[in-house]
Amino acid sequence: MKEHNHSFSRRDFLAMSGTLAAGSILPGKSSSSHESKQDMDPVIDIHQHIFYVGRTDDQLIHHQKTMGVTHTIMLPAGSVQYTQSTHYGRSNGLQAQAGGNKSCFDFAQAHAKEFSFAANEVPDIPDAVKEVEKYLQMGAKMIAEVKFGLSCDSQELQRFYSLAAEYGVPILMHWQYETYNYSFPYFYKMLEKYPKTKFIGHAQTWWANVDKAQQDHPWEMYPNGPVIKGGITDRYLSDYENMYGDLSAGSGLNFFRRDEDFTKDFFTRHQDKLLFGSDCSDLVGEGEACIGAQTIALVRKLMPKGIERKLLYENAKKMFTL
Ligand SMILES: [Zn+2]
Ligand SMILES: [Zn+2]
């Protein structure tokens, strides 16, 4: 929707109100649901990567700003390893040339107001826990992105689940059938075994399994058409307090567009457990090329203001104490 002429960008507004200190403007206090006010609302992106498919730091900063994101959590890859969990090297760098712990930490330190960082490591190397713990002690907001070729109940991943609970941070997992984090239908065993660990689900197998029919074709990554209620993901979100969802990536957007009536109901039912992430590698941060911008637009189109605020900002602010 085109904005009205009388609306001002936050920058214009700040420039005009010269007598006010910038800190006295509280963007989160916007109470109007008027379209033109949305530019002033804060948005937290819980899922971005550094050096993503060759993107520079300046391009990343520009992308996040254009998308309207006010705070971003940077998710590192593990170190370069040739183990079973990295598919003997194929999945290094999260299979997206993403940078590791030190790069994310240094970048977040240099831009502390707008960026935080997570901690990660290849789980099946001897010092994995030590490396993750080192960054948790330095202030990492979560363990992520856990995208490795291991069963979700493997001893290696269970060490990460314990560590997450110990440090009071969530763990974000990329679910992709027979590629990353195996045995999704049995994940409830981990949800029950680690009730103090907050798990955040993401990616193809996570979103496809909101649909009950996915169990008949678990290999499908981007299924289309109406969604049948009662899928595994929906049940995990309903039945387990410690299960959350990350809206990011093409898999999220594809799912939300499948069946908008279902999506509205889904967002309403799980409004306290869903968090916006972009996970897009484009350079523009707006329009058709940007998955994050389209996801934000879709949430705003489908949901009333109260739920929109929870999904794009409040749930993440609370979970990560930002
Ligand atoms: Zn992912
Ligand atoms: Zn984008």
Index terms:
322 residues, alpha/beta, TIM Barrel, 5-stranded parallel β-sheet, 3-stranded parallel β-sheet, disordered N terminus, binds zinc ion
Please, could you describe this protein's structure?
This protein has 322 residues and is an alpha/beta fold. The protein has a single domain, classed as Metal-dependent hydrolases (TIM Barrel), CATH 3.20.20. It has helices spanning 10-16, 57-67, 101-110, 128-137, 155-167, 188-193, 204-208, 232-239, 249-258, 260-269, 291-302, 305-319, and strands at residues 44-48, 71-74, 115-117, 143-146, 171-174, 199-202, 243-246, 274-275. The strands form 2 sheets. The protein has a 5-stranded parallel β-sheet with strand order 4-5-6-7-8. Helix 4 (128-137) packs parallel to helix 5 and helix 9 packs parallel to helix 11. Bound molecules: zinc ion (2 copies). The site of one zinc ion has 9 residues, from helix 11.
